[in-house]
Amino acid sequence: MQKTDPAQQPPQGDPPQPATGSGKLPGIRHLIAVGSGKGGVGKSTVSVNLALALAQRGARVGLVDADILGPSIPGMLGIPTGEPPEMTADSRMIPAQRYGLKVVSMGMLTGDDQPAVLRGPMVGKYLKMFVDGVQWGKLDYLILDLPPGTGDTQLTLAQSMPLSGMVIVTTPQAVSLKIARRGLRMFEKVQVPILGIVENMRTFTCPHCGETTDIFRHGGGELMSEELGVPFLGALPLAAEVVTCGDEGRPIVVAQPASLSARVYAAIADALVEQVHAAVTVLKPFVWKWDSNEGAPAWMEGAVQPAGARTVPVGLLRRDPRTLSLLWEDGHRDDLDVRDLRLACRCALCVEEMSGRKLLDPRTVRADVSPRQITSIGNYAIQFDWNDGHNSGIYAFNDLRALGERAGLQSVEDV
To answer: Which residues does ATP bind (predicted)?
Structure first.
């Protein structure tokens, strides 16, 4: 094994480039993100203890501290900081191990007092390195503790990682719930399944008199889950020992497994496992060579259901060299002409972002234009590499469904 030079202080230049394949994550069954709309709701504490609760059930679990600019996971797990990890011969990081978890964090590279001063694109590069540039081995779950908000990190994940789903953490207070709702909506827009809501810091029980107090109100997470139609995974108490254990590097699930908080985490882990199994994405990530049909995605008519989603595809097919067919979960099928798809591109080169004015002149698009390659983007879109050299357009599934409906109406009018 090679070891990185401890004298090197990351991150100054580009991060080391991971040895990646087709975009899949070999050996990792489920990639689960834990996020929140705002900071201060205990999201990292939930991520750590939830990962440990899954591990205590016999699962193989990894944990990524995806808050690149504000890492906190090493401190909660008692992992030394500022000690660069060992590397494999093919330049993959070897994760730290603690309490049965495999862990990667920017804090392992920078130390407690060394800030990571990075622009957005560099944050995305480090995030990708921490996920697919690590020697994880076989995992049942890889948990990603996200920074708060709906910024670069969240979008990078949605576009480039095959997420099994998202867990939203909130506190019962109204302002937290409002911002958590925005975060939830963001992931819904990019077709990432919402596995559930966790309400943190619900009730405080005085250790002296036993009286309970709802410091941040009560039941807001349950109400939000009902209003939005997403699962409610559980509510955690506000307990001083959770903070103490985290500060000592021994999370509550490990330090006090019989405590109320640890028992609630166990129940949340059980509920999460059920939701993950129910939300398994039908279509797997793909890179599809159009002319040869190499790497073609599945066409799964058996996944069609009457109450299925309108914008979740269960099949893509090259019907002929000029036609892309899509089968949707609700059973509807669209056959789209590939030149029409090229003309419908909404990237910044084809459509003016602010006004929506079309910049692409149809007369400049070849009659024989066709895809060279089609690539899945997260759970919500596909991207085309066209034989005219254009490759910057991302086609969201909801836009493709709308395009198919418009094409269907046009064909009816022509008749």
So the answer is: 37-44
The answer to whether 14 and 124 have CB atoms below 8 angstroms apart is no
The annotation status of 124 as a binding-site residue, yes or no, is no
CA distance 366 to 387: 10
Structural contact between residues 232 and 189, judged by C-beta atoms closer than 8 angstroms: no
Looking at the structure, do residues 52 and 113 belong to the same domain, yes or no? yes
Residue 215 pLDDT > 70:
no
Q: Which residues of 27-53 are buried (b: 16+ CB within 10 A; e: fewer)?
A: ebebbbbbbbbbeebbbbbbbbbbbbb
- Beta bridge partners of residue 65, listed in sequence order: 105, 145
Are 348 and 310 part of one and the same domain? Answer: yes
Average pLDDT, the chain: 83
Pairing assessment for the beta strands 96-98 and 101-105 based on DSSP bridges? antiparallel
Query: Annotated binding residue at 42?
Result: yes
Domain boundary among 248, 278, 308: 278
Q: How confident is the model at residue 172 (pLDDT cuts 50, 70, 90)?
A: confident
Indicate the number of domains in the chain: 2
- pLDDT one-digit tens code per residue, 318-369: 999 999 999 998 899 999 999 999 999 999 999 998 888 999 999 999 999 9
Omega into 11 within 30° of 0, i.e. cis?
yes
- The answer to whether the annotation marks 37 as part of a ligand binding site is yes
> Is 358 known as a binding-site position?
no
First vs last C-alpha separation in the chain: 69
pTM, whole model, 2 decimals?
0.70
Instruction: Say if CB 303 and CB 329 are below 8 A apart.
Output: yes
**φ and ψ at 112, to 5 degrees?**
-70, -35
Amino acid at site 140:
D
Q: For the beta carbon of residue 412, count every other beta carbon within 10 angstroms.
A: 8
Same domain, 257 and 314: no
The CATH code of the domain that includes 369 is: 3.30.2020.30
Structural domain boundaries enclosing 376:
287-414
| Dihedral pair phi/psi, residue 355, rounded to 5° | -95, -20
The Cα–Cα gap between 359 and 346 comes to 10
